[in-house]
From TrEMBL:
Top-level taxon: Bacteria
Gene3D superfamilies: P-loop containing nucleotide triphosphate hydrolases
Source organism (scientific name): Gordonia iterans
Positions of region (Disordered): 1-33
Keywords: Transferase
Protein name per its UniProtKB record: Cob(I)yrinic acid a,c-diamide adenosyltransferase
KW DNA repair (keyword) present: no
GO molecular function: ATP binding; corrinoid adenosyltransferase activity
Length: 205
């Protein structure tokens, strides 16, 4: 597809504008590095286009840090102060989700937390609360059976409006891959860790 031009045009009765403005479900999967990074890069584009962004990280530890979190939240503050871009929210399962009150010393059931996160995300999608969703590392609770993948696919297929959703993580279920509009598999060729080098600031986080 050079310069973003499709090789063929479907006979679907839609205009070029209607086809261009359809919501996208994207999946970044595979064993290689860059799945989340690519999703956050799309979120930056979405912010610049005036689309409200919500990131939901399905990670077990509150210590999990990514540089894009600070960058995107800073852009959210830019929007609040200047009106440029759009609102940004960032939620993390390892912190107990921002809408669930938990005591700091409570032992967290990760499967329960993942289900609670998806329940809230599904509610927001049905209400069209955001324009662009990143469900980071979401393939893992699907792969482990914590969340029903058929329920997820049904909710995504039925989402109202022009909401874009990007899902990242290894082991993307085939039914999710089939439902997606854009699927990218990251394949590792070489990695510094192969030579015994640890994760590096500015590269891994």
């Amino acid at each position: 597809m050079p310069k973003g031009v499709p090789e063929s045009i479907p006979n679907d009765g839609l205009t070029t504008r209607q086809r261009r403005n359809q919501p996208v479900l994207a999946v970044n999967t595979g064993p290689g590095k860059g799945k989340s990074t690519a999703a956050f890069g799309m979120a930056l584009r979405a912010w610049n286009a005036g689309l409200s962004v919500a990131v939901f990280q399905f990670v077990k530890s509150a210590k999990w840090k990514v540089g894009e979190e600070n960058a995107l939240l800073a852009l959210g503050r830019v929007h609040e102060e200047t009106g440029q871009g759009a609102p940004v929210q960032w939620h993390k399962m390892g912190q107990g989700w921002s809408w669930i009150r938990r005591s700091d010393d409570a032992e967290q059931d990760h499967a329960e937390a993942a289900r609670a996160g998806w329940t809230e995300i599904a509610r927001r999608i049905a209400a069209a609360e955001h324009d662009f969703y990143v469900l980071d590392e979401f393939t893992y609770p699907l792969h482990w059976g914590w969340i029903d993948v058929d329920e997820v696919v049904a909710a995504l297929r039925e989402r109202p409006g022009g909401q874009h959703v990007v899902i990242t993580g290894r082991y993307a279920p085939e039914v999710l891959v089939e439902a997606a509009d854009l699927v990218t598999e990251m394949t590792k060729i070489k990695h510094p860790m192969d030579a015994g080098r640890k994760g590096q600031k500015g590269i891994e986080w």
